[in-house]
Design brief:
CATH superfamily of the largest domain: Molybdopterin cofactor biosynthesis C (MoaC) domain
Strand content: 15-25%
Number of strands: 5
CATH topology of the largest domain: Alpha-Beta Plaits
Structural class: alpha+beta
Number of helices: 4
Strand order of the largest sheet: 2-3-1-4-5
Helix content: 25-40%
Largest sheet: 5 strands, antiparallel
């Protein structure tokens, strides 16, 4: 057995909250303990510390859904142009919606250890305020692993697309608050932020 490439991992299919072993983003205020769900190691790492794609072959299929969000902060003037489809580059929200849908389908091409999934549905919605637009991306599948990464990717790329469309009139726009809001399906059940 090659110790670098063939390390046995009997816990490889144990994914905390069906999120593929995502870490807590460096939280050091006790949040990590709340989010760990009883698992003390990242499932994308083998015992020797090298990366692996988690084995989900023994997991049951179920309908799974996740919603993620991202926010683009800008000025009231720019948000008014955005809402009215009057930006110099055109209807930014229509472009961002398509970009988000395309991004959800390309997630395993962008995030190395994500599983390719049969995406059943993607919706991208927008909430405009006076100083920000919030993007909500919901992704649904029937499969053996969750779609949190697809929802996060969709929300983020839609936000990047909004930024690209408004940067000519606001070079100081900020992308912020990218997070999963809710997930359902799978062994761990439903979860809401």
């Amino acid at each position: 057995m090659d110790p670098v490439n063939d390390v046995e991992n009997p816990e490889a299919d144990a994914t905390p909250a069906d999120n593929g072993g995502a870490d807590n983003g460096g939280a050091d205020n006790g949040e990590a303990d709340k989010r760990a769900v009883g698992n003390t190691r990242l499932t994308h790492l083998r015992h020797d510390g090298t990366a692996q794609m988690v084995d989900v072959s023994n997991k049951a299929q179920s309908t799974r859904e996740a919603t993620a969000t991202a926010t683009v902060r800008s000025t009231a003037e720019v948000l008014s142009l955005l809402g009215g489809g009057e930006l110099p580059k055109g209807d930014a929200l229509a472009v961002a919606r398509i970009a988000g849908i395309m991004a959800a389908k390309k997630t395993p091409d962008l995030i190395p250890l994500c599983h390719p999934l049969p995406i059943a549905k993607v919706t991208i919605d927008f909430e405009l305020d006076t100083d920000a637009v919030t993007i909500f991306a919901t992704v649904k599948t029937r499969g053996v692993t969750g779609v949190e990464m697809e929802a996060l990717t969709a929300a983020t790329v839609a936000a990047l697309s909004v930024y690209d469309m408004i940067k000519a009139v606001d070079k100081h726009a900020v992308l912020t608050d990218i997070k999963v809001l809710a997930k359902s399906g799978g062994k761990s059940g439903d979860w809401t932020l």
